[in-house]
Each structure stands twice: as structure tokens, then as C-alpha cells.
């Protein structure tokens, strides 16, 4: 019988034991790689969620900050309570329409109901209910009551505060080229760089350092370098002008007086237009400028709380922070403190019940016009 040679011995395969050891080692290595990949993926999701959370908080605070800083700005005239309102009052409420009342620069509505039923998801479902606020939301304030609280057709989330500010829009200011012929005379200004802010029906403010008035445009015309703005008591505009007298003290607006568009900006929370990675709808921060439709600013803003720093002794510094219903005189609001709770929007972790990361951001803002006045 032929004996196996050395070469034949080297061609023999692995034994069963060797194969089992190799398979076990391969399984351990594969398991380790899968666990490492899974861990890296989870870490990536958490880091992405943290980045988005921080970004959401930063943007939300930034939008609120910019608005608060400019509240009450009417050029070099700083006493908003003395601003002359030439507009007609609302026939049903007896008050100046919410979007144009420049006599109140800072306005807020404190939520007096708990947040909605989040149903374990921390999302919009259950939040969009009929909440309560102090003072009450009503037609005077531009809100629509019913089964759902609305502003500009947007259903408002319950449990979160509502913040509004009013100012003139400095970026679109124009100067008077000619003094008023009388306190009821037309305003003859430079030609605006953007005429869309100076069309029939627009609400404008004219100011100098001694007075300010808010009126509605009823006619415009351009002759040479002059742009004429009329403000009659007719014109078929809404709400219209109750008077053509823009002074109230017998003095006209002189050359270099400034004309600005009037802006009221309202911040509310409502359901986002999008969904997250689990198909849930998050809450978002919206703003509404004047009568324009609400615009979604930042996804994942689940709570907005606003406190107001009140100057009680006239030294230009806040003496205490109060909710809006405790503030007796809104013209004494010197600073505003915002607290916003934001989420990662998408579910990224198993360390919370709904997989969301959350963080509360706080910032206190000085109302520049009030500080200067104080």
C-alpha cells in the first residue's frame, strides 16, 4: 500500500475542532463589529440631536431677542403712550386694531392652562386645544375664538405664553422733504426705496423728537423727487383715519421728520408644517407680522415662558420680574426674560420616554428704548 508523501500530508483540510474554533472567532469578531457600528450610529444620532437642539434654541432666542430689543422704537420719540393714534377704532370693540396700536409697545398673554396631553410623544398632538390666557384673547387682540384659538388662521398651542411687540420699521424710513402746510397737511417725503411699504392701505408712523402719529395711507403720488402721502378720512381703507390732524398739539411735522412703516410682531407656538423621523408633528415657534400670514420660524420649540422686568422707581432698571397680568403699567417694562424649551425634533435616544432630547434656554433682554428713556 502506497504511503502518503509529505506533500499529500500538507494538502489535508482543517479538523472539525479547528473549524469550530474558526467559526467562533469569526462570530465574535462580527458581533464586535456590529456592536461598534450600532454604538457609533447611536452616538451619531445623539450628537446630531444635540446639535439640532442647540441650534433650535439659539435661533428661537435670537428671533425673540431682536424683537424685544426694538419694542417701542419710534425714531427719536420714545413716549409711546403719547403717540397720537389718528386711526379709527374698531366699531365692535371700541379700541384701536391690535396690529397698529403703537401706544402699547410690549404686550403679552400669560398661559393659564397646563400644556396639552402629549400622549407620550412630546409632540403637537394634544397641545392644540382650547387654552386660556390672561388677559383673555379676543377679537381686539387679533385672535379668533372658537373650538380652537387662532391668529391669522393658525391654531395656537395651549400652555405656552404669547408675546407681541410693536415698533416702526427703521430699514424703510423716509424723510420729509417739505414741512407740512398745516397739521392736517399731506406728507411730502423722499421717494421710498421700496414702495411696497408706502401703498394705499399701509399704516405708517410719522415722528420727530417731540411727537409721533400713526395714520393710514389713502393716496400716494410721485412728482419729480417728491413722494406725497395723503391721509384723508375717506379713501375706502380699513380701519381708516378718524382724523387728518397728525399733531394734536398744533405743531406741524417739519423737514427731516421721519416716516416709517408700523410693525406689530406676535410670537406663538403651533403645530409644525412638517413631521419628524417617526411621523409625529412637533411644535414650532411662529411669528405673525402685522396682518401677514404666520410664518414658521423654528421647529421643536415646545414651551415659551415670558417674564417682564418692571421699573417701579423710574431709575431705568428693573426692580422685579412679573408675569404680564401682574404688570400694572406696561410702559414700565424695562427688560424681558424669555425661557424656551426646545427638543431635538427627531427621536434619537432611548434615555427618554419619547426618544427626544430637551433643553431649556433662558435669556434676559433690555428693551433699548425704555433703557434710553429711563
What is the compact description of this entry?
With 374 residues, this protein is an alpha+beta fold.
Distance between the termini: 116 Å
Which stretches are poorly predicted, pLDDT < 50 over at least 5 residues? 117-122
Order of helices and strands: HHEEEEEEEEEEEEEEEEEEEEH
User: Over the alpha carbons, how many angstroms does the gyration radius reach?
Assistant: 31 Å
DSSP summary: helix tally: 3
Helix content, binned percent: 10-25%
Strand content: 25-35%
Question: What count of domains describes the coordinates?
Answer: 2
The largest β sheet comes out as: 13 strands, mixed
Count of distinct strands = 20
Mean pLDDT: 85
Write the layout of secondary structure elements.
Elements: H1 6-10, H2 16-70, E1 84-85, E2 106-111, E3 133-134, E4 143-144, E5 150-151, E6 154-155, E7 162-168, E8 174-178, E9 187-189, E10 203-207, E11 212-216, E12 219-223, E13 226-230, E14 258-271, E15 283-289, E16 295-299, E17 301-310, E18 320-322, E19 333-343, E20 358-366, H3 368-373
Parallel strand pairs: 1-11
Antiparallel strand pairs: 2-3, 2-7, 4-5, 5-6, 7-14, 8-9, 8-14, 9-13, 10-11, 10-14, 12-13, 14-15, 15-16, 17-18, 17-19, 19-20
Amino acid at each position: 500500500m502506497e504511503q502518503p508523501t509529505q506533500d499529500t500530508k500538507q494538502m489535508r483540510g482543517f479538523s472539525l475542532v479547528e473549524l469550530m474554533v474558526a467559526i467562533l472567532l469569526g462570530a465574535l469578531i462580527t458581533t464586535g463589529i456590529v456592536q461598534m457600528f450600532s454604538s457609533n450610529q447611536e452616538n451619531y444620532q445623539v450628537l446630531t440631536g444635540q446639535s439640532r437642539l442647540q441650534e433650535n434654541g439659539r435661533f428661537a432666542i435670537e428671533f425673540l431677542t431682536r424683537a424685544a430689543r426694538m419694542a417701542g422704537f419710534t425714531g427719536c420719540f420714545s413716549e409711546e403712550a403719547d403717540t397720537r393714534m389718528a386711526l379709527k377704532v374698531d366699531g365692535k370693540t371700541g379700541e384701536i386694531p391690535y396690529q397698529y396700536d403703537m401706544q402699547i409697545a410690549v404686550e403679552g398673554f400669560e398661559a393659564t392652562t397646563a400644556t396639552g396631553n402629549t400622549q407620550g410623544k412630546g409632540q403637537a398632538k394634544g397641545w392644540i386645544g382650547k387654552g386660556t390666557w390672561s388677559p383673555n384673547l379676543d377679537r381686539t387682540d387679533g385672535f379668533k375664538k372658537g373650538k380652537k384659538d387662532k391668529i391669522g388662521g393658525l391654531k395656537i398651542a395651549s400652555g405656552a405664553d404669547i408675546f407681541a411687540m410693536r415698533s416702526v420699521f427703521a430699514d424703510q424710513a423716509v424723510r420729509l422733504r417739505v414741512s407740512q402746510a398745516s397739521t392736517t397737511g399731506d406728507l411730502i417725503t423722499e421717494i421710498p426705496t421700496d414702495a411696497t411699504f408706502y401703498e394705499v392701505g399701509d399704516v405708517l408712523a410719522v415722528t420727530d423728537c417731540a411727537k409721533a402719529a400713526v395714520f393710514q395711507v389713502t393716496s400716494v403720488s410721485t412728482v419729480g423727487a417728491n413722494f406725497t402721502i395723503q391721509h384723508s378720512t375717506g379713501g375706502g381703507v380699513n380701519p381708516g383715519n378718524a382724523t387728518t390732524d397728525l399733531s394734536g398739539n398744533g405743531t406741524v411735522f417739519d423737514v427731516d421728520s421721519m416716516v416709517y412703516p408700523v410693525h406689530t410682531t406676535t410670537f406663538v407656538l403651533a403645530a409644525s408644517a412638517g413631521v419628524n423621523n417617526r411621523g409625529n408633528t412637533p411644535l414650532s415657534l411662529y411669528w405673525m407680522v402685522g396682518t401677514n400670514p404666520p410664518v414658521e420660524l423654528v421647529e421643536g420649540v415646545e414651551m415659551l415662558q415670558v417674564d417682564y422686568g418692571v421699573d417701579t422707581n423710574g431709575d431705568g432698571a428693573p426692580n422685579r420680574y412679573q408675569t404680564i397680568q401682574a404688570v400694572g403699567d406696561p410702559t414700565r417694562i424695562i427688560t424681558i426674560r424669555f425661557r424656551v424649551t426646545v427638543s431635538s425634533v427627531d427621536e434619537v435616544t432611548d434615555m427618554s420616554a419619547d426618544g427626544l432630547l430637551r433643553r431649556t434656554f433662558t435669556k434676559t433682554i433690555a428693551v433699548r428704548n425704555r433703557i434710553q428713556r429711563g
